[in-house]
Design brief:
43% helix, 22% strand, 5 strands, five-stranded parallel sheet, globular, 5 helices, alpha/beta, single chain
């Protein structure tokens, strides 16, 4: 397992995913790529939506810095990749670009609104990915 991509957003599920990815990277000598995706609002067919003002890219840059400090405590380095877009799509695209062997994402119990709207990033990644996906509970 050469490359592991981790979706990270400084939530408890993402912290668990990062921890598991660290364990795997150490066990297999894998390269880690950590991304945090600033979501966009719904757009039109011709243009993507605007960045969600309640969840700006600056917040995701700070989340990646937090991930870097966690990695350093474990003696690891990673490529940190901020992104903007639909989170599941952006994570899968990055995994394809980096030829990842595995994507690691966290999950939380979705509420009724998330179930109705289908807004689970982990499910979206699992359905779109062309590599293995580890969903950490």
């Amino acid at each position: 397992m050469d490359t592991i991509v981790v979706g990270y957003d400084e939530t408890e599920p993402a912290d668990r995913a990062l921890t598991r990815a660290i364990e795997l990277a150490k066990a297999f000598g894998s390269r880690l790529v950590v991304t945090s995706v600033a979501p966009v609002l719904a757009g039109t067919l011709k243009s993507p939506g605007a960045v969600d003002p309640t969840d700006p890219p600056e917040r995701h840059a700070k989340e990646l810095e937090h991930a870097r400090s966690v990695l350093e405590k474990h003696g690891l380095e990673a490529e940190l990749v901020p992104a903007v877009g639909e989170p599941a799509e952006a994570i899968v695209q990055l995994a394809e670009e980096r030829k990842a062997d595995l994507i690691v994402v966290g999950t939380r119990e979705p509420n009724i609104l998330m179930r109705l709207l289908g807004q689970s990033v982990s499910e979206g990644v699992a359905h779109r990915a062309h590599c293995d996906v580890l969903i950490v509970h």
